[in-house]
Amino acid sequence: MITNERQYRISKAELERLRAAIKRFDAAEAASSLNGDRALAQAQLEALQSESEVLSEQLREYETLKSGSIRNLEGGQPQRIACPAHQGADCSGPVPAPIGRENGTQGAADPALRGGELFVGEPPEAG
């Protein structure tokens, strides 16, 4: 999964290199360098194509997330996730600085936190 701009740029450049390698791949030449094994040459080509498809999908996912057109990663109801501020436990206590406010407020002061739980997407209405 691509998580930042640096990874995105590297992945995009790597995808172009993969596409160029696929375009210039010569099955007969590859087979001759593999002692005439055409099946192994075909497997090499398929591996390049598969890696290209995986990388393309990861780039599309990152671009979609970056565009903001996806509000919830899983869709539907907001998902409760483990809170990194609490070392993987659920967010049931006060949020320590720097995630919480320095004035000692509970996690509810953070718009992504409501009732001590961290949400992906929009948190449910308080009520």
Q: Helical segment tally?
A: 3
How confident overall, as mean pLDDT?
73
Work out the strand percent: 5-15%
Q: What structural class is derived from the secondary structure elements? A: mainly alpha
As laid out across the biggest beta sheet, the strand order is 1-3-2
Q: Count the strands?
A: 3
Would you list the SSEs in sequence order as H and E? HHHEEE
Describe the sheet with the most strands: 3 strands, antiparallel
| Rounded Rg | 23 Å
Helix content: 40-55%
Write down the overall geometry. Answer: elongated
List the helices and strands and how they pair.
Blueprint: H1 5-24, H2 27-33, H3 38-67, E1 79-81, E2 113-114, E3 117-120
Antiparallel strand pairs: 1-3, 2-3
Question: Summarize this, please?
Answer:
The chain is built from 3 helices and 3 strands.
